[in-house]
Design a protein that fits this description.
69 helices; 4 strands; globular; two-stranded antiparallel sheet; 1448 residues; mainly alpha
Length: 1448
């Protein structure tokens, strides 16, 4: 049956009691859809009728099952969307009624909120989203909701808000990603609901309390889940989740709810609800709880006027105190929740809550209740540190230390009384808890300011008491290891402690502190002796007394070990304090007394312990060894301090036992290192014979030096074996005692030491600054230390050893080896190849500047033989100790040495070149990094020698090159692997690079024609004759690279290539649609671009511009597809091709670039940035005879950058513009003209101009770029700068102004006043201000103004000029630059950090030299106020101190 034919039938069908209205007929939704689509069907108010029917149907049937629920049927929403969003919302015949005129009354009759609520609940319950349907629903909501919301009750709006919460939680994902939230908030429909609820809440009046109660009962859990996830992402917070959070805060922290806070009567409903939620889902409450607390503080601050009376009867500051009390009362509620458990999540919550207290400064001076609460938090943290040694609770320990740090920043006195408990527990904290060092820094900073360092020193020494060490499980050795690795003995803390003691210990505290330390050390040693005597008496080794034995006697058995550990740790920390005593601040008598006291410590403790420990074989026990280690460390630390009255020379009765310790078995490695260091120091005092010590040391190194993979952290307590001790000794000698070692050693000992260095295998991991020490790392640092090479004895012994180690290679005939290799005859592998390889391994890390040239040539010749022998060992021996990495080492040495020497004709033979060509790899088909590196190094060697041969051929020696070319030509007539043809491609590159065909001998040109023919025929066999789409072109890297060189050689030979297939465009299309491995695409990209460039050069003149333009497009596209990884390869390819361009082709390319560079040309900023870099590469590799073209292009580019401020304001473009100008000023200074300066100064002005908008992080490269530009102009084009000195002075003023830093805690208006004067690339935070590096660069520029230089120009008179400087011309402008510095220093809203001022001083002194006294006086009178005059006087005084006046 067909649909209704008139309006009456249509209305009856919609109001029919059944659906469909007629059995077997269409459904009502289909009838309505057809009627709306039928323009011929006239129905009065058709849109209103359809919308009313849809909304009524949705409202009545919203509770049905999904299958029959119209809310879940997209057809209803689709029709509703088409009706509501139709232009004008009317159809022909509807009499043009406005949408609002009929929709508002309709929505008053049919509520829309229940329908939307039902939809949100359904999809939230199902947990899945139909994107198409959701888009239709949100479209309808955006139209209906604003019209219906005035009649919706606040309670209903709250329910809709709750449904939105549940939807976001259910479908927002675990992290509430912005993509998911954006999909849910399509057309901002959900944001509209949330906004409506917030508006209704603000106007609810008396219902706010009811809404608050309902929210806590029904929706708090969902809101907490949103708040929990909303602050965790690193990206920007979505507007929907932010609005949801704000709506919840306005509900639970409304003004009506907060009013009881003024009377200390907090609403308990929120706390009870949070408690119930915590019991059910702890993470849901704990994560957002700190954020909720921070919002509470901000809300209370916002409404403090309404919450706390501000009448005239209140004292000043009372409102702030009331606010703090109210905030801390709320903190108490939050803290109670955070202390309900002991899991790591609870501890993290406590830390975050305290961060809010510290950030908002919530602790009042008189709020004793809050202080008591915070002390409870601190006590809990201290209790948690009781298990500080346990690695399983590392997160909890870290949180506990962070809590102590926060309490210290809030109020130091809160936990000051617990310092005696805190320090012992910090002692055993693992080193991975970095927050402990930060906490100790805070304590030292406070004690330094309050001059209370003796208390910290006392706590530090008491931290290693025996009773504290016994709490660490595992016995005394475990306690010693844990405490030695803890923060109290860390180098960072001891350095900070030493600095604090030296700077802030008052003169009146010095003697008292020395006395306390002396008593502490003596007490620790006396307790050890006492326990040792008890233990000896129990063993029967010492005198006994009759004493009562009880059951506790057995508990003291391990006491001496703990006492020894206590003494060693106290000695380690207290020596740092004693060494740093500020004796220079004392009077003469007091200083002598302090020196004697410190000397007494050394004699009564260190020397006494050494004397006791080295008697009667006591050193065989571990606890006595520990005591001796502490005594040696204490003695060495004190005697090394100049000016102390200490007994530096040990008695001979102690030195002999110490020497014997080095050969005693069972000695802990730490004692070996400390003993050796002490003996070496005694030798430096000429108190002991060095020969015996060196013999012991060399014997230990020769027998115990570990393999290259053994690592050591650099900390003595971690030494566990004799091998690690040998590594530590090697580091000790090379780092500290190398000059003495060279002086003391006999020639034989030097030879032994050199043998130790050269026998190490260096093929371990690459050394890095942060890695642990290993033998290769120590040797690497030694060989890169200038001190080693300045010691002639060691240097000669080292080089002689290397020469001796490689000398057997002189007996090998290289020609015979090469003949055997070429004939492939079987030969026996040598057993000493690994010895040769070890020598070249060492040579590879040896700076070539220190090796004599003659020795380098000898080593190079031996290296050729070593290369052949190594390859033979690899191929012949089944279980050879030689690896492909060893061959790589030798060839890398050959490559580096040849590059350093600069010539290869006299050292490398044609036979060896043939050998390299034949054996470019090991022959094994592997894809390892070693094999790739070996292939690359070999090709570089071949390229070096072939380049030398081609240059020699230009002078007449053409036979060798002809033979090479003929050999390569033959290779293309066989089925030789394509990888072996790479040398022929390198030869073509060399020939093209060295000049044109007319400059080469004809026999070489003829042989190259044969090679060209063979290469062309070979490649055409594998390439299609025509290819429109490129699908049949094989993407073989070697084949395409060969084809690219065929095209290059054809152009060089000027051969006809009309019948050549054009593969560039098809290949580029395939490459841009690449879906395979990205590394393959990266390798193919430069080859394809090279093919396209050659084809563009060979194209007819009318097509050449189009092809070059296509090359530029492909270049930009490849950068998008392959990323910046391909940039360097593509730029190298483009540069090499540009050098072969004609002037006409090069000018055409520059015109295309100039056409594409303007931002209005249609390219995005990213592509324009790539084009600027492309232009710099093209100009750098410009062909000969194009200087005028390059000049014109540079001028146009500068004018373009100056005319469009987007080039200097966009972060992507700005860096490339600066790099472009820097390269032009440094690489092509002679091409700059006077006309270029107007654009150049405009660009620099724009880069340094003030801005109201600033980037989040400082881009210091812009500052350095501007400095480099000015430096190049001053050094190389002084003639141009002379005409624009005012511009130079202005830019220098701006650079000085950029060195300012914002003062902390400035207000918003004050911050804007300063930041508006700074460029946009400076971040508006003090942490991102420019530092000492930038100041040093500017100072270098200012001193360059006084340096005499030559102008880089072309033309007549360029050679007749004299070097001059800008001192006299710029002297008139120096005052303005100095004024900028004075203004920056005296700015009340800014400051110039001390490191910045210090680094800038050389430049300022150069300006003072230019200024002169007369101009200085004029500047003081006319340009400076009182503060400026004081600053200028201080600067001039410093200048006078360092000025040379010609008297010495």
């Amino acid at each position: 049956m067909s649909g209704p034919q008139n309006a009456q039938d249509f209305i009856r069908a919609l109001k029919a009691p059944s659906d469909p209205p007629h059995p077997g007929g269409p459904l009502k939704i289909d009838i309505a859809t057809d009627a709306w689509a039928n323009a011929q069907l006239y129905v009065p108010n058709k849109a209103e009728a359809i919308v009313e029917w849809i909304l009524t149907r949705l409202l009545k049937d919203k509770s049905k099952d999904r299958s029959s629920n119209p809310v879940c049927d997209s057809r209803y929403w689709a029709l509703l969307s088409r009706v509501l969003l139709f232009p004008g919302a009317d159809k022909p015949g509807d009499h043009g009624r406005a949408l609002r005129a009929w929709l508002v009354p309709l929505l008053n009759r049919v509520p829309i909120a229940p329908v939307i609520l039902s939809y949100l609940e359904v999809i939230a319950t199902e947990g899945s989203l139909d994107s198409a349907q959701h888009a239709l629903v949100t479209e309808c909501i955006t139209v209906l909701w604003p019209l219906a919301v005035p009649k919706i009750a606040p309670e209903t709006l709250l329910e809709c808000f709750g449904a939105t919460l549940r939807l976001v939680v259910a479908l927002g994902g675990p992290d509430l990603s912005s993509d998911r939230i954006h999909a849910l908030d399509d057309h901002h429909a959900l944001s509209l609901i949330v906004s409506s609820y917030r508006t209704a809440l603000s106007n609810a009046g008396s219902k706010r309390k009811q809404l608050y109660t309902l929210f806590l009962q029904k929706h708090l859990d969902s809101w907490l889940r949103v708040a929990m996830r909303d602050g965790e992402g690193e990206g920007a917070v979505s507007s929907l989740t932010s609005d949801v959070y704000d709506a919840g805060i306005e509900t639970v922290l409304g003004l009506d709810i907060l009013k009881p806070a003024a009377d200390q009567k907090h609403e308990s409903a929120l706390a009870d609800s949070l408690q119930r939620a915590l019991e059910a889902h702890p993470g849901t409450v704990l994560r957002p709880l700190p954020r909720l607390f921070a919002s509470y503080v901000q809300t209370v601050k916002r409404h403090k006027g309404a919450l706390f009376g501000q009448g005239s009867s209140q004292a000043p500051g009372q409102v702030a105190e009331q606010l703090q009390v109210a905030a801390m009362a709320f903190y108490a509620s939050c803290d109670a929740l955070a202390r309900a458990g002991e899991d790591d999540e609870y501890w993290r919550c406590r830390v975050a809550l305290l961060e809010v207290v510290e950030r908002e400064n919530l602790l009042g001076v008189k709020d004793n209740d809050a202080k008591a609460l915070l002390r409870q938090d601190g006590d809990a943290a201290v209790d948690a540190l009781g298990m500080a040694w346990d690695e399983q609770h590392i997160a909890r320990i870290d949180s506990a230390v962070q809590i102590l740090s926060l309490l210290t920043r809030i109020d130091y006195d809160l936990m000051a009384v617990r310092s005696a408990v805190i320090f012992p527990r910090l002692a055993a904290i693992p080193s991975s808890v970095t927050s402990a060092l930060h906490y100790l820094d805070l304590l030292l900073e406070y004690d330094s300011k309050t001059r209370n360092l003796p208390a910290s020193i006392a706590h530090l020494s008491g931290a290693f008491a025996v009773q504290h060490l016994q709490r660490v499980p595992g016995g005394p050795k475990a306690a010693y290891t844990a405490a030695s690795a803890g923060p109290l003995t860390s180098l960072h803390f001891l350095d900070r402690l030493s600095s604090a003691v030296h700077s802030f210990l008052t003169p009146g505290q010095v003697l008292e502190t020395v006395g306390d330390i002396s008593r502490t050390l003596q007490g620790a040693y006396e307790r050890f002796l006492e326990q040792e005597a008890k233990l000896s008496a129990d063993r029967g080794d010492g005198p006994r007394k009759k004493r009562k034995r009880d059951s506790a006697a057995s508990l003291d058995r391990a006491e001496p070990e703990y006492c020894a550990v206590s003494f060693a740790l106290v000695a380690r920390t207290m020596v740092a304090v004693l060494r740093s005593m500020p004796l220079h601040t004392l009077t003469e008598g007091t200083r002598l007394e302090a020196q004697q006291a410190i000397g007494k410590v050394c004699a009564d403790v260190a020397l006494r312990a050494l004397s006791d420990g080295l008697q009667n074989d006591r050193a065989e026990s571990w606890h006595w060894q520990t005591v001796i280690v502490g005594a040696l460390r204490l003695h060495y630390g004190l005697v090394r301090v100049p000016g102390l009255d200490t007994q530096a020379r040990l008695d001979q009765t102690l030195l002999a036992p110490l020497l014997s310790l080095l050969s005693t078995t069972g000695i802990v490695p730490e004692l070996t290192v400390e003993t050796t260091r002490t003996l070496l120091y005694q030798c430096s005092l000429e108190n002991f014979t060095p020969n015996d010590v060196l013999e012991k040391l060399l014997e230990h190194l020769e027998s115990q030096l570990p393999p290259q993979h053994t690592a050591w952290s650099g900390k003595a307590h971690t030494l566990t074996s004799e091998a690690e001790a040998a590594l530590a000794l090697l580091h000790l000698v090379t780092d500290r005692w190398l000059p003495y070692f060279d002086t003391w050693c006999t020639p034989e000992q030097r030879k032994r030491f050199a043998r130790i260095l050269t026998n190490v295998k260096m093929d371990g991991p690459a050394p890095s600054a942060s890695s642990s020490l290993s033998v290769p790392v120590v040797i690497f640092r030694t060989l890169h230390d200038a001190q080693f090479w300045e010691l002639l004895g060691l240097r000669d012994a080292f080089l002689a050893q290397l020469n001796e180690q490689t000398a057997p290679l002189d007996e090998v005939s290289l020609s015979e080896l090469l003949a055997q290799s070429s004939s492939r005859s079987p030969s026996k592998a040598r057993n000493d190849v690994s010895r040769f390889v070890a020598a070249y391994d060492i040579l590879l890390v040896t700076p070539p500047e220190y090796i004599p040239r003659q020795l380098q040539i000898e080593l190079l010749k031996r290296g050729f033989a070593a290369d052949v022998l190594t390859l033979r060992s690899l191929r012949n021996a089944k279980k050879s100790t030689v690896s492909p990495g060893h061959l790589l080492v030798i060839r890398e040495f050959l490559r580096r040495t040849i590059a350093f020497l600069g010539s290869v004709e006299n050292v490398m033979t044609k036979d060896f070149l043939d050998y390299l060509v034949e054996h470019s790899t090991t022959g094994e088909k592997t894809d390892s990094a070693t094999d790739k590196g070996l292939s690359n190094v070999t090709m570089e060697l071949i390229d070096m020698y072939q380049g030398a041969l081609v240059r020699s051929a230009k002078r007449g020696s053409a036979n060798v090159v002809v033979d090479l070319v003929n050999r390569y030509a033959e290779s293309y007539a066989t089925d030789e692997p394509s990888a072996n043809r790479k040398p022929s491609l390198l030869l073509i590159d060399c020939v093209v690079r060295e000049g044109n065909a007319a400059e080469m001998p004809q026999e070489i040109v003829q042989s190259l024609r044969v090679l060209y023919t063979r290469m062309r025929d070979h490649t055409l066999q594998h390439l299609p004759s025509t290819s429109d789409d490129g699908l049949d072109v094989p993407l073989d890297l070697h084949l395409l690279d060969t084809w690219s060189h065929v095209q290059t050689l054809r152009r060089w030979l000027k051969e006809d290539g009309e019948d050549m297939p054009l593969l560039g465009r098809p290949l580029s299309r395939r490459l841009l649609s690449w879906t395979g491995v990205k590394q393959h695409a990266l390798a193919l990209a430069p080859v394809v671009v090279s093919i396209m460039l050659v084809e563009a050069q060979a194209a007819p003149p009318l097509e050449r511009a189009d092809r070059l333009q296509y090359v530029i497009v492909v270049y930009l596209s490849l950068l998008r597809v392959c990323g910046q990884q391909a940039a360097a390869l593509l730029q190298s390819t483009v540069g090499a091709a540009c050098r072969t361009f004609s002037a006409e082709e090069f000018g055409m390319l520059l015109d295309l670039l100039l056409e594409a560079l303007p931002l209005g040309s249609g390219l995005p900023a990213e592509d324009v940035s790539s084009l600027i870099r492309f232009s710099a590469v093209v100009l750098h590799d410009a062909p000969e005879g194009t200087s005028k073209i390059c000049q014109a292009f540079t001028t146009k580019c500068l004018n373009l950058f100056a005319d469009d401020e987007r080039f200097t304001s966009s972060s992507d473009l700005r860096g490339e513009v600066v790099d472009f100008i820097v390269k032009q000023c440094n690489d092509r200074p002679a091409s700059l003209r006077t006309a270029d300066l107007s654009g150049l100064w405009s660009i620099l002005r724009a880069l340094l101009a003030g801005s109201t908008a600033h980037e989040p992080t400082t881009d210091a490269t812009v500052f350095h770029g501007v400095v480099n530009i000015l430096s190049a102009l001053v050094r190389l084009r002084r003639d141009l700068v002379l005409n624009t000195l005012p511009h130079l002075g202005f830019v220098l003023r701006q650079l000085v102004s950029c060195l300012r830093s914002l003062r902390p805690q400035l207000g918003g208006k004050q911050r804007r006043l300063v930041m508006d004067t700074l460029p946009r690339w400076l971040a508006p935070t003090p942490a991102h201000a420019l530092g000492a590096a930038e100041s040093r660069a500017l100072a270098r520029l200012l001193t360059t103004l006084t340096t005499k230089t030559m102008v880089r120009t072309h033309g007549p008179g360029a050679d007749a000029q004299k070097p001059e400087s800008l001192v006299r011309p710029f002297s008139k402008h120096a005052a303005y630059v100095l004024t900028a510095y004075v203004e920056a220093v005296n700015d009340p809203l800014c400051f110039v950090p001390a490191p910045v001022r210090k680094e800038l001083q050389p430049g300022l002194f150069a300006l003072c030299e230019m200024l002169g006294e007369h101009n200085r006086d004029a500047m003081m009178v006319s340009a400076l106020d009182a503060g400026g005059k004081a600053t200028m006087k201080a600067l001039w005084k410093e200048y006078e101190k360092q000025r040379y006046v010609g008297k010495g």
